[in-house]
Amino acid sequence: MESSELIKEAYKEAQIGLAEGGLPIGSVLFRNEKIIARGHNRRVQDDDPLEHAEINCLRNAGRMNSYQDCILVSTLMPCYLCAGAIVQFKIPEVIVGESANFEGAEAFLRANGVKLTNLNDSLCTELMATFIKEQPLLWNEDIGVPPA
After folding, report:
1. CA 43 to CA 56: how far, in whole Å?
2. Which member of 13, 54, 98, 106 is catalytic?
3. Which residue, among 123, 141, 122, has the nearest Cα to 132 in the 3D structure?
4. 83 near 109, Cβ under 8 Å?
5. pLDDT of the residue at 51
6. Of 35, 43, 25, nearest to 1 (Cα)?
C-alpha cells in the first residue's frame, strides 16, 4: 500500500472519531503489506486523557513481541505522549497527514531515529483546522493547554 492509500485509511478513522463526538484524529498500523490495526482519538468518548489515536491504534493491535517492521500512520503529527510510545516500541517509521495545525513531537521523533514522512495532506489539514476553529476548548484540552 502506498502512503496516500494509508493516509486515506487513517482519515476514515479520524472521521469516525469526529462522528462519535470526539477529535478527528485517526491512525493505522501497517505491517507485511496490510493494515493490522486501526484507531482514532477516543479521549472524549472514553473519558480517558491518554486515549489518543496512536495509542488507541496500538491498543487495538494487541501485544506484539516486536513493532520493528511496522509503520504507524496518523492524520496529525504525533504529540509527545504518542511519540514516546513510538520510540519506546521502536516503531521505525511514521507517516503523518499533516503538521500545519500541530507541530507535535517531530524533532523528538527524528532525534530518536524514527523515519518521518509528512504528506501535507490537504484533507487532513482542513479537517483539523475546521475542528480547531469550531472546538477550540476541546482541542486545547487534548494538547494540554489550560483554559484561559
Report:
1. 10
2. 54
3. 141
4. yes
5. 97
6. 35
**pLDDT value of residue 145:** 85
End-to-end CA distance of the chain: 44
Q: What is the mean pLDDT of each run of 10 residues along the chain (148 residues)?
A: 94 98 98 96 96 98 95 98 98 98 97 98 98 94 83
Q: Which three cell numbers stand for residue 138?
A: 476541546
* Calpha distance 75→102 (Å, rounded): 11
Return the residue matching grid coordinates 486545547. Answer: 140
Which residues have a Cβ under 8 Å from the Cβ of 84 and sit 6 or more positions away?
none
At residue 82's C-alpha, the angle toward residues 78 and 83, to 5°, is 75
SS3 for 117-142, per residue?
EECCCHHHHHHHHHHHHHCHHHHHHH
User: Whole-model pTM above 0.85?
Assistant: yes
54 in catalytic set = yes
Instruction: Report the pLDDT value the prediction gives residue 34, as an integer from 0 to 100.
Output: 96
